[in-house]
Specification:
Elements: H1 5-16, E1 20-23, E2 34-37, E3 42-51, H2 54-66, H3 77-90, E4 100-107, H4 124-132, E5 135-141, E6 148-155, E7 171-176, E8 183-188, E9 206-210, E10 223-224
Parallel strand pairs: 3-4, 4-7, 8-9
Antiparallel strand pairs: 1-2, 2-3, 5-6, 7-8, 9-10
């Protein structure tokens, strides 16, 4: 079976880190892509490509031709869609008590490589919204002066992760190869029943981010663990 680009890249970074990776045979029910092992633990991985839709392709073609682009998108929308798809591959194997990881790869690009690179749909703000809910800004405004006297940013409805939803997912990771540099950023789920040890993805190609349950609904609260 031919590997997708994202699967091939994930295998590459596992080899760089000395992780043992094996393809999970397909069965009668949906199965994850890989089982990964190291001295610290074994875990399952489902890898998802984000590919350009018609609107995104038109946007990239304009960017390629003019050098300018105006982007308007709902935070977390693309990442959230891939997370929902990936859950079906991981839900059953999670019953084995091992960590489960969703790996997302931004393959939204033209055949000539044109892409938005780090400005794409998998930034930390997009991942936050996809995991913990839509970004909402609450403003308190003085009725007489119309000035903002207080502002609170929070993650609102439609979260994917909480104490009872998708707590079998240990982390969402973002795989990238912008400018030919292979990297992985791991966003650990604070609600996970089986946590992924931070030491698994350690190295110059890796970053680990955590957030406490108390701060999960507050945007931009990730703390780098490296």
């Amino acid at each position: 079976m031919q590997l997708s680009k994202s699967e091939a890249l994930f295998i590459s970074i596992c080899k760089i880190l000395g992780l043992v990776i094996e393809k999970v045979p397909e069965g009668l029910t949906k199965t994850p892509d890989f089982k990964v092992s190291c001295p610290h633990c074994s875990f399952y991985v489902e890898v998802k490509d984000l590919r350009a839709n018609i609107k995104e392709r038109q946007l990239l073609e304009n960017f390629r031709d003019t050098g300018f682009v105006s982007v308007s998108s709902e935070l977390g929308q693309r990442a959230s869609g891939m997370i929902k798809l990936a859950k079906y591959q991981l839900r059953e194997v999670a019953k084995k008590g091992l960590p489960c990881v969703i790996v997302l790869y931004d393959n939204i690009k033209l055949d000539d490589g044109t892409s938005l690179n780090i400005q794409g749909p998998l930034t930390s703000d997009h991942i936050t919204a996809a995991m913990f809910g839509e970004w909402v800004v609450d403003l308190t405004i003085d009725r007489k002066t119309a000035k903002v006297i207080e502002r609170e940013d929070r993650c609102g409805p439609n979260e994917s992760f909480n104490k009872t939803s998708k707590n079998y997912i240990s982390a969402v990771a973002v795989l990238s190869d912008y400018s030919g540099l292979l990297n992985i950023i791991v966003y650990h789920n604070p609600f996970a029943q089986n946590s992924l040890p931070e030491v698994v993805f350690k190295g110059p190609n890796c970053s680990n981010f955590k957030v406490s349950i108390e701060n999960a609904k507050r945007p931009q609260s990730w703390i780098c663990c490296d």
